[in-house]
Amino acid sequence: MQITGTQHPTYSPDKNGALLESYRKEGYIALDNVLSAAEVEEAKATLTELFRRIVLNDGSIKAGKFWSSPDAITPHQFFVQYEPGYRYDPDATVEELELKVRKLMWYTDQHPFFEFLVNSHPVIRSVIEKLLGDRARLYQDMALIKPPFIGSEKPWHQDNAYFEAAPLDATIGVWIALDEATIENGCMHLLPGRPNLRPLEHYHGFDCQIVESKMDASQAVPVELKPGGALFFSGLLPHQTPPNASPLRRRALQFHYRSVNSTLLSKEDYDRLFVDRDGVAASCHAASARRKQANK
């Protein structure tokens, strides 16, 4: 399994103007070598360390398990999610359990290396703040993992549909490949271009996802990345990852940042802002409310 796509530039400050122009036009940029080879290996080892810590702390770990250390510095708890359909096996080894994990969330305050990546990594912070045009604060962190063969699809969505930050252009994500991210193992697919950078109505299918008639998936662009490569993308950019059909795990770190001058709204106020061109409240919260109403 080899990377088949074009190579991406490596970041340097003299490219800031071109990167910003591309981001404003397409809604994303892709860069190679955002993390060094040593940082990639440390990130993978630290994810394993954190997962094993929670297993050993609890004695077992089931889907949707929350845990946080007593000195956690955020109000959120470290979260582990397995692949859909996985049923907990009390006899599974730690190694076997780790190969069923789909997502870790709220983990960056659990280890100094991840605190360094989100708060002080020179390339990540430089690019994020250049694209935002402002100082940035961490909004959300996840590790997104597709285990061999069973790694499931994440359907088309916009990250802003999950958030409540205003204005809508004040949120940027960075998705960092720790393994080769290829078409075969579920690399990111995007719908780039300024016309797509607007709220699109979401509904609850097997996940919160964009209403198919509100987008043209035939225009999707797969973005393959080498380990250490990264996508920086707007919270309005429609994106999706297909299932992992390969024998190799696909791990990625994802951090979302928002401008320090952005405002967090109530869900109700955000639904009045995050509206599609037909005047429909487009967020996942609004989609959930519509589903509950329809099921009454």
* Strand elements, count: 16
What is the fold named in CATH at topology level of the domain at 13-153 and 171-193 and 223-261?
Jelly Rolls
Q: What's the total helix number?
A: 7
Low-pLDDT stretches: 59-75
Give the class from helix and strand content and strand pairing: alpha+beta
Order of helices and strands: HEHEEHEHHEEEEEEEEEEEEHH
CATH top level assignment of the domain at 13-153 and 171-193 and 223-261? Mainly Beta
**Widest sheet, order of strands:** 1-13-8-15-5-4-3-2
The CATH architecture category of the domain at 13-153 and 171-193 and 223-261 equals Sandwich
- Percent helix among the residues? 25-40%
Kindly estimate the percentage of residues that lie in beta strands according to DSSP: 15-25%
Largest sheet: 8 strands, antiparallel
Mean pLDDT comes to 90
Report how far apart the termini are.
48 Å
| Shape label | globular
The Cα radius of gyration reads 19 Å
CATH superfamily of the domain at 13-153 and 171-193 and 223-261: q2cbj1_9rhob like domain
Helices and strands in order:
Blueprint: H1 16-26, E1 28-31, H2 37-58, E2 65-67, E3 78-82, H3 94-98, E4 101-105, H4 112-120, H5 122-132, E5 136-146, E6 154-157, E7 165-166, E8 171-177, E9 188-190, E10 202-204, E11 208-210, E12 221-223, E13 230-234, E14 239-241, E15 250-259, E16 263-264, H6 267-273, H7 284-294
Report a brief summary of the structure.
This protein has 296 residues and is α+β, with helices and mostly antiparallel strands.
